[in-house]
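question for whoever is on the cluster today: can someone run the full assembly for these? two chains, 227 residues total. i dont have access anymore since they changed the login thing
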Amino acid sequence: GQNIDQPTEMTATEGAIVQINCTYQTSGFNGLFWYQQHAGEAPTFLSYNVLDGLEEKGRFSSFLSRSKGYSYLLLKELQMKDSASYLCAVRDDKIIFGKGTRLHILP
Amino acid sequence: DAGVIQSPRHEVTEMGQEVTLRCKPISGHDYLFWYRQTMMRGLELLIYFNNNVPIDDSGMPEDRFSAKMPNASFSTLKIQPSEPRDSAVYFCASTDPSAPRQGTAGNTIYFGEGSWLTVV
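^ ran it for u. tokens below:
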């Protein structure tokens, strides 16, 4: 079966760092995605990992360990606009999403 | 380049009525996905197509739901008859066929703005 787990909610302070974890069990693997979704909007692409290791892109970084079925999204220098849901998704042929982590940023 | 286009954006309908949601994928994308999103269940994959052929419809909740892709630029998701529990946001998405490359958007999926369905 296919299963993707991530925390339901997290809270962090403006200017701080937060790490959102994702674990997965899928029949196949052709990459892991992170998406950001603001309330009332469609998900938008943040990152894609197909190789093990850390991929850095500005304030956002994503890590993958294929042997452990584990990924995390690291957000640095948090801003109020980062308040959103963060979705982990895995592709074999189809793309399956976790239920998302709702991130609250406190001033 | 236009993104994924969905219609209608919002629909309110009465229980028992037929609902048809429409999607135009990004030109050149060879995969098309239909998702449904609710607070309780998150983003669920309903069905996906590759080169207009349905590949996996195991996520379609029941026989009231059907989807078609008659050509590379158009797909429909139909609910007949609709029920209040079908109220959700329905997203259509398409993928870039380029080879997946670490860190890039290649092989990712692009979402339409969604169709917000309310069945009363």
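summary bc i know u wont read the tokens: Chain A touches chain B at residues 30-31, 33, 41-45, 47-51, 55, 57, 87, 91, 93-100 (CB under 8 Å). Chain A has a mean pLDDT of 94.
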